[in-house]
Amino acid sequence: MVQKLLILDGGISGGERASRTEKTGIFVSSQKDSQQKEKKATMPFGNTHNQLKMKYTSEQEYPDLSKHNNHMAKILTPAMYERLRDKQTPSGFTLDDIIQTGVDNPGHPFIMTVGCVAGDEESYEVFKELLDPIIQDRHGGYKPTDKHKTDLNPENLKGGDDLDPNYVLSSRVRTGRSVRGFCLPPHCSRGERRAVEKLSIDALSSLQGDLKGKYFALKNMTEEEQQQLIDDHFLFDKPVSPLLLASGMARDWPDARGIWHNDKKTFLVWVNEEDHLRVISMQKGGNMREVFNRFCTGLTKIEALFKQKGHEFMWNQHLGYVLTCPSNLGTGLRGGVHVKLPNLSKHDKFGEILKRLRLQKRGTGGVDTAAVGGVFDISNADRLGFSEVELVQMVVDGVKLLVEMEKRLEKGQSINDLMPAQK
Amino acid sequence: MASVFTRMMSGRGVALMLGSLGAGSFATSYLRGDSASVTAQEKTKLYPPSADFPDLRQHNNCMASALTPAIYSKLRDKCTPSGWTLDQCIQTGVDNPGHPFIKTVGMVAGDEETYEVFADIFDPVIKDRHNGYDPRRMKHPTDLDSSKITSGMFDERYVLSSRVRTGRSIRGLSLPPACSRAERREVERVVVQALSGLKGDLSGKYYSLGDMTDKEQQQLIDDHFLFDKPVSPLLTCAGMARDWPDARGIWHNNEKTFLIWVNEEDHTRVISMEKGGNMKRVFERFCRGLKEVEHLIQERGWEFMWNERLGYILTCPSNLGTGLRAGVHVRLPLLSKDTRFSKILDNLRLQKRGTGGVDTAAVGDVFDISNNDRLGKSEVELVQLLIDGVNYLVECEKKLEKGQDIKVPAPILQFRK
User: Which of A49, B25, B361, B410 could disulfide-link to A150, CB 3.0 to 4.6 Å?
Assistant: First the structure.
């Protein structure tokens, strides 16, 4: 095998391919035989490519974040990059993998995205120097030493069954769960993703009673099934958001993705979308208590079924349930309602009220959509540092107040005496 | 498979405490640090290649046609010296099933060695895409001697503009799907430094995508020079748009007839173009510019990726060999409506595109006509083929104008054996 050898320009080593001493234009036989071209990979699970970057200095590799506005860009420094760049998790996830989505998506002047993802459970340990401050920034000052409380006992919720259905059109609670021992959506191989799907199907098929249901694999569903799922607002699509695409979560779509729901269509599980599992309990009307009850019961049963097969969910005392995006750590819980607030939403204190109640508004299509017909999606803003019961309590109490305010404004009355204190 | 996991998990002695049923919370023994994590090596054993083989049943691309479980099994655990793997090569083809009519390639190279290490899949794909060219047996001719071109001046009542493009990769640096930020910046540095050495009618200026002013940007758009962040999922799934717009830019000469894209789909895309029908001059400038740039990088110890079997090495296998697309914008109002138009193009080894480039529609009977082939014929041969073909098309158009009949030409040989 004939190979031209090169003189190299200052600074960059050509690695194994070139020597520093030969002149250009002279053809010499390569001293390497062709077998040296190959190496044994630890891919698709490892990342031997990271070692290649080590021959460049940290400064040469450091991303240009000058136009960026996301948590990662705020926290990462050249010194930190230098300390973390040669590390990887046991499955081979590296710093550059964590931050790629934040580098590719500079963000928005008003909306602060997270800008990084985990590839596996160990990401949060190996790269804690970067992720702890991001978590602290994103989750209201949650410290690396703080402990997170998990409470999925629906008995602990007070009230929640009396939200006025004339205003509260639907109620929903969702969270995510990751199966310990498998890489997360940004990093998993096809084999791992399929294994997660199989485990999920096995567990869910054992559910009984009002939780009994059926699985629809995305790649196998018929046109009819697809249309029905769309009409039920259950179907999820291949992600289009560059935030998700840049992290590698949409690879191999729609392989091993699917939707499970119970026959009553009130309990729904997404498999291998943005997380291993997204668990959703929902129904029309304002009975959040019932929704939360089913949510807790269902989750607990699913967890037990997984454990029967020797698997558990990723969880620890500090971060609670471990999910792909640092914004969903802790409870991973978003409890919310679709509620009619045409008057209140036009009030100049609307934003402030929501802030004090620790709630956020979205359009009725979910995140990054607009409200339609004065109907808003109102949900808890927090995920970590509060338990599930505490968060749903905030939603229940907060929405009750918002509806009261709406009724006052309808009658032309003031709402000043109803203004809440900061929770 | 579940039993395998059970054995693995319990074998590590992970102690689980079931929390109270109502609470649903539980504590794992906090030795979870090592006991639950599975190393990459272990996973390679846990998941045989058959577990990872992609589902390609809905797919129509060259990769899907060629990849078998046996090939995948042989290649899955290999990687190039830079660590590029088979899964990374094929990801774009897995993610983009393709179109029933248009067969995309469905895989990319991460570096020069990709074509060697993964030859078992790249060779059949190259054969499929390049009319049966066999890299194991055949040699690709490179010929950038523009003096050999004949009849290179078109009738400018029909041919509105002429253009030749190719790509070049810098040996020793990874290609756009695989490169790190430092490597990409190094490509930019090497190329920009070389281009600053160009003189005379080739002397010009570099505009970095990240740094250009609004005014510069508008000018480049008006000149039809500016390239954008890729939106095609064929490209984004291959990882080429990472870190955009870091180390991307456009260089062009002052006369705006010689243009180089840096770090878009390849390390460099080199374009020679001008209004009108003087293809010979366009190609002459193309060859001269390319040779100059090559000389300038060699002075500093760099060279282009090239070998005898595959010619110039580029990211997409479809661009191997010459990487050359020579084309014109030509008005063919009558011929384009003739039912024999497609057959004529086929036999002449030409393809038509809209005036916006690939995957666009023709506007006002003006077509982009260019050579189909890239590998197995030299640059001179392909440009001559294009010239002869376009001349033939223009003749047909003139005949139809006079009400005369036209003939479908005999098909041209695929490539020199």
Answer: B25
